[in-house]
């Protein structure tokens, strides 16, 4: 998993990426120097659990992508079967939840974990 | 409402934008400006035309920028620095303005003005993004400006505003005393004095540096900057016109652009909540002011619940909200996701977008409110958000003085 994350980081010049389980637990992470992996995984856990819970309460039972966009960067969370791939990138407009590199990494992660893809 | 319908339904905005773009591309700035201004007379809120107006102003500003840069290069002319900073601000290029102010400070470290200019910009940035490092730097530069010019009111007023917002009551008391000695006599100052009299506490002891960290951790200021009587005098401070926002939201739901919209005040209370079918939900009453906000840590329903901050004596406005559901989604994202994402130095937040089979959710700040919208899953979130933002920005104006 770490290799997949490292390759993804190199390909899209991401500052870091990680895999988070549906219960918010960190599965694997690969981040550049200067990125606090604990903080990044805490954000991932908050998105998956707390935001997920509030969405379910509002009738939105599953989500496939989350993007938190700022002036100089964004956080992208993409569903990868029973896990989530989270990526911290710079302000590149073309990188989003639908980006082919992120989708491809998500599919590889599912295979790497020997998990059946949902799609 | 008719005006908004005309805007959304009209095709001629696109044609005007195309014509103006062609003129701009061929360097005919005056012609492009004429097309844009004529268009804005008919469609005053059209975001495409407003963007082009800014592009034209920037294109015109480039010549002036080059002249000012040349003056700076030849003799580090302080006036040229100040004009250039102001020009960048007018052209809505805040980062360039800040960078130039940094250079001005380096070139003239013993002048008070560069410290004041940079300090004010960093103060705005801190109030906007709540990153402690911006607060520390704003504080340092404003103190330097005040120390370098013992007669200057402005850095002291900005320091007082900063102390007010972070609940540094002891420091505010000391600044209140200094300002009283300087005795400026204007009605605006009377209002500021009244607020300082109420909030300042000469016996309070606080570490200002620690307060910056606390505000960043809590993701919330102790007091709303809009409650500072002089805040409206600074450029860019805008406020949503709540009644008009209600109409705009209802219209967008009626059009089918969005299924549900929530607008929250800074304290988490609901300004507008409207959904498909039932229109605008009843409004929550305005938040109740705490009797003594300083006795316990600043709190709002969002930050307190999610970050584990101690519950204060403040009324919990969320309890007065008309319902939960989607409102809670917006509160959770606002209170949990944005403050945590702030840790990664990504600059000012634009929005959080969530895609699902059950619909797309977008949450972000527009003017002084946190806006959440739910739209059909077939919708394009960026386009939906732009329409909503343009519509709400059209009912956002300078705060009333």
Characterization of the model:
The complex is a heterodimer of chains A (119) and B (401). Chain A has 3 helices and 5 strands; from the N terminus they run H-E-E-H-E-E-E-H. By secondary structure, chain A is α+β, with helices and mostly antiparallel strands. Chain A has a single domain, classed as Beta-Lactamase, CATH 3.30.450.30. Chain A has a 5-stranded antiparallel β-sheet with strand order 2-1-5-4-3, sandwiched between helices. In chain A, a hairpin with a 2-residue loop joins strand 4 and strand 5. In chain A, helix 1 (2-12) packs antiparallel against helix 3 (100-112). The mean pLDDT of chain A is 84. With 401 residues, chain B is α+β, with helices and mostly antiparallel strands. Chain B has 16 helices and 8 strands. Chain B has helices at 2-9, 12-25, 29-42, 47-75, 78-90, 94-107, 112-129, 132-148, 154-166, 169-182, 187-199, 208-218, 242-255, 301-307, 326-341, 381-393, and strands spanning 238-240, 260-264, 270-275, 279-280, 349-355, 360-366, 369-375, 396-398. A 6-stranded antiparallel β-sheet of chain B has the order 4-3-2-7-6-5, with helices on both faces. In chain B, a hairpin with a 3-residue loop joins strand 3 and strand 4. In chain B, helix 8 (132-148) runs antiparallel to helix 9 (154-166). Chain B is globular. Classes of the chains: A alpha+beta (119), B alpha+beta (401). Strand 3 (65-70) of chain A pairs antiparallel with strand 5 (349-355) of chain B, so a sheet runs across the interface.
């Amino acid at each position: 998993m770490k290799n997949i994350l490292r390759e993804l980081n190199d390909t899209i010049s991401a500052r870091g990426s990680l895999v988070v389980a549906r219960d918010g637990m960190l599965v694997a992470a690969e981040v550049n120097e200067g990125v606090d992996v604990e903080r990044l995984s805490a954000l991932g856990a908050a998105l998956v659990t707390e935001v997920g819970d509030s969405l379910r309460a509002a009738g939105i039972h599953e989500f496939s992508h989350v993007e938190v966009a700022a002036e100089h960067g964004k956080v992208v969370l993409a569903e990868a079967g029973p896990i989530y791939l989270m990526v911290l990138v710079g302000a590149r407009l073309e990188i989003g939840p639908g980006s082919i590199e992120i989708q491809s990494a998500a599919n590889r992660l599912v295979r790497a974990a020997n998990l059946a893809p949902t799609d | 409402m008719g005006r908004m319908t005309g805007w959304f339904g009209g095709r001629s905005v696109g044609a005007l934008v195309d014509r103006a773009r062609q003129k701009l591309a061929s360097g005919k700035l005056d012609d492009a400006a004429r097309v844009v201004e004529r268009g804005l007379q008919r469609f005053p809120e059209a975001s495409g035309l407003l963007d082009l107006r800014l592009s034209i102003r920037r294109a015109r500003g480039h010549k002036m920028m080059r002249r000012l840069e040349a003056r700076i290069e030849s003799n580090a002319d302080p006036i040229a620095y100040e004009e250039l900073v102001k020009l960048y601000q007018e052209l809505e290029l805040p980062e360039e303005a800040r960078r130039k102010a940094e250079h001005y400070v380096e070139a003239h470290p013993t002048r008070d003005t560069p410290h004041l200019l940079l300090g004010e910009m960093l103060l705005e940035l801190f109030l906007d993004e709540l990153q402690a490092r911006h607060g520390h730097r704003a504080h340092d530069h404003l103190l330097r400006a005040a120390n370098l010019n013992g007669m200057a009111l402005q850095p002291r007023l900005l320091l007082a505003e900063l102390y007010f917002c972070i609940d540094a009551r002891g420091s505010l008391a000391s600044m209140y005393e200094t300002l009283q000695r300087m005795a400026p006599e204007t009605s605006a100052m009377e209002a500021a004095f009244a607020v300082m009299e109420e909030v300042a506490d000469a016996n309070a002891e606080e570490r200002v540096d620690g307060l910056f960290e606390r505000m960043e951790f809590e993701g919330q200021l102790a007091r709303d900057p809009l409650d500072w009587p002089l805040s409206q005098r600074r450029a860019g401070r805008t406020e949503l016109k709540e009644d008009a926002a209600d109409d705009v939201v209802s219209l967008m739901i009626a059009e089918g652009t969005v299924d549900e919209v929530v607008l929250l005040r800074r304290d988490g209370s609901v300004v507008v909540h409207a959904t498909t079918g039932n229109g605008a939900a009843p409004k929550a009453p305005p938040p109740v002011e705490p009797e003594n906000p300083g006795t316990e840590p600043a709190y709002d329903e969002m930050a307190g619940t999610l970050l584990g901050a101690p519950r204060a004596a403040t009324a919990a406005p969320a309890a007065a909200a008309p319902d939960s559901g989607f409102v809670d989604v917006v509160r959770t994202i606002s209170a949990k996701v944005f403050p945590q994402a702030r840790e990664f130095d990504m600059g000012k937040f634009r929005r959080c977008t969530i895609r699902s089979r059950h619909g797309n959710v977008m949450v972000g700040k527009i003017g002084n409110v946190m806006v959440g919208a739910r739209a059909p899953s077939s919708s394009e979130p960026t386009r939906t958000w732009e329409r909503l933002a343009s519509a709400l920005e059209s009912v956002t104006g300078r705060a009333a003085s």
